Structures are given as structure tokens and as C-alpha cells.
Amino acid sequence: xxxxxxxxxxxxxxxxxxxxxxxVRLVAVTKEHPVAEIRERVLRYGRxxxxxxxxxxxxxxxxxxxxxxxxxxxxQRNKAKFAVRFELIHSIDSVRLAETVARKAVENGKVQxxxxxxxxxxxxxxHGFLEEELPEALAQIRAMGGLQVEGLMTVAPYxxxxxxxxxxxxxxxxxxxxxxxxxxxxxxxxxxEVAVEEGATLVRVGRAVFxxxx
Length: 214
Fold this sequence. Notes:
Layout: H1 3-16, E1 25-29, H2 35-41, E2 50-52, H3 55-64, E3 69-71, H4 80-83, E4 88-92, H5 95-107, E5 112-118, H6 134-142, E6 147-154, H7 166-178, E7 183-185, H8 192-197, E8 202-205, H9 207-210
Parallel strand pairs: 1-2, 1-8, 2-3, 3-4, 4-5, 5-6, 6-7
């Protein structure tokens, strides 16, 4: 596939669900791809947010490429001082992590935009708040100086049939509506169309952008 093909599929998914395609943003996941390939596969088509999941890999790319950078992977508290360089952090998965990021943001004189990660599939190997933990955690994090909570994020369980994870995406959208959060980061290469149909505003797509045979 290619980035234009992904954009076309996002647009079709929006039309199917009665949404404006302008309400969905593609975050090109650039981990394990060098700067030259990012320029060729992504930036030649426009200014898209770039998503990285490893701080040590992201920092050299951020020094070389002017772009809107999103951090999308698990974040260790000892890396928070670097994470506040990102425009948006998708993966706040604990109150302790939020406290650390908030402190580093204040030290850097900024308000850090963040999303709270939910483990809606209740997979023990994955990060994120459980659904029942969200109300208290959100209240605590919203009260912190230095952070602006803009939405929710989830990583759906792996499946070869994206229809099976539609309820996960629908639930994230319902929770975002309930707590008046505009951003819903959900959907990856294998399931982004279903995520869009269920309300995604940010889709994190890597393989479908970088692998022509995907």
C-alpha cells in the first residue's frame, strides 16, 4: 500500500459512516524507518504527524526533520524529560506517569498535550487504564498543572478480522463522548477503517504506509 491509498481508504470509511474526512488525521508510524524513507513515503505527500514509540530512536529524527511529532508507545517515567519534546503523547497509562510528565512540562514552561491510554481488551501484557479506573484517574490528571488531556487512546487486541474489535473502538468513542474529550486515537494498519467508522480522530498507521505489499 502507500500513504495516498491509506488516505483514500480513510475517506471511504468516513463516507460510509457519515463523517467528514477532515475530522480524521493520519499519524504515520515511523519507527524503524530512516529519515530518507520518511521523506519519500510520507513527507512528500504533505505535513502529517509522525509517530514514534521509542525515545532513543525518535530524538535523532526529531533533530533532523521538522514535523509534528507524536509519542505513541509505552513511556518510562525516566524518559519523561524527553517526551515533553513531542507535540502529543498518546500513551499516558498511569497517574504516576502523568505526574512525572506534568512536572517535566512545567519545568520546560509548557502545557503538554496528552491522551490517556485504555486497556479495553483487558490484555495482561498491554499497558493502560482499565475502564473502571478511568473516572478517578481522569479527575486526578485533569487537576495537574502542566497537562492538557485531549482524549483517549487504545490498542485493540490483535485479530485477522477487524470486525471483531469494532466493539472496542465503539466503547472508546462512547467514553470519549461521556468525558467530553475530542480526540480518539485508535486503529492501526490492520483495522483503521473500522476505527474510523467508529469515531477515530487519529489513526496510527505504519506498515500500510511503508510496505507496498501490505
